[in-house]
Write a structure and sequence with these properties.
The chain is α+β, with helices and mostly antiparallel strands. The chain contains two helices and six strands, in the order βαβαββββ.
Length: 93
């Protein structure tokens, strides 16, 4: 079962802000979240049924710090198209 805590953050980059003007939110989540689970989260917590959801799995980068190799955490990025006229006051900048 999906929960609101599965959403790590809403991404606010130059690209994501330009997408928000056309009604697309960019959401970063845990790797195990599916499109259907994210759709349930938006219905339950925000009261909005997304029109379309596209997903992208982002693998963690390998980084080197003081000679030791480590890896950043992997995450999923979702592009959520909300219906026209729908506003998410909690998520707007």
């Amino acid at each position: 079962m999906a929960d609101i805590t599965d959403i790590k953050s809403i991404l606010y980059t130059e690209k994501s802000l330009s997408l928000q003007e056309s009604g697309v939110l960019v959401v970063q989540t845990a790797v195990n979240v599916s499109k259907n689970q994210l759709k349930e989260i938006f219905k339950e917590y925000f009261g909005i049924t997304p029109v379309r959801i596209n997903s992208l799995r982002q693998e963690g980068k390998v980084k080197r710090f003081r000679g030791k190799i480590g890896q950043c955490a992997s995450y999923k990025k979702f592009y959520v198209k909300v219906p026209e006229g729908a506003k998410l006051d909690a998520l707007s900048v």
